[in-house]
Amino acid sequence: MARAHRQRVELLQGTLDLLILRTLQWRPQHGHGISVAIRSSSQDVLQIDHGSLYPALHRLERQGWVDAEWKTTENKQRAKYYRLTAAGRRQVQTERDRWTRLTEAIARVLDPA
Predict the structure, then answer these.
(1) What is the distance between the alpha carbons of residues 61 and 82, in angstroms, rounded to a whole number?
(2) Using one digit for the tens of pLDDT, what is the confidence trace for 80-89?
């Protein structure tokens, strides 16, 4: 367990928003489902704790990029389900473009021509 903890990757500020928005492109999900989808898609490298996830979801909701409604889960529990708004779908592309610029810039610093 200690080795796995050491191998965790910390997210750059703003990256969590992109991951959440991208995950919600697939389908509306509750918070735990979003966390599981990110962990699974990243092959367990990215593990989002609830203390980071829910404030980010609330921030995205305030920005108008996601909507939320209470529903019953497959386990018969009440949970808030989040879905992308039209503005959120546009924001995914904006965030992806920003991410591409950032990673290209970092690559240039790490491997200068």
Answers:
(1) 9
(2) 999 999 999 9
pLDDT tens figures, 24-57: 999 999 999 999 999 999 999 999 998 999 999 9
Q: Read off φ and ψ for residue 53, nearest 5 degrees.
A: -65, -50
Task: Report the percentage of the chain scoring pLDDT > 90.
Answer: 80
**Contact status, residue 22 vs residue 91, Cβ threshold 8 Å:** no
Cβ–Cβ under 8 Å, residues 33 and 41: no
Give the contacts of 24 (CB within 8 A, at least 6 positions apart). 34, 66, 82, 83, 84, 88
Could you tell me the domains of the chain? Answer: 2-110 (1.10.10.10)
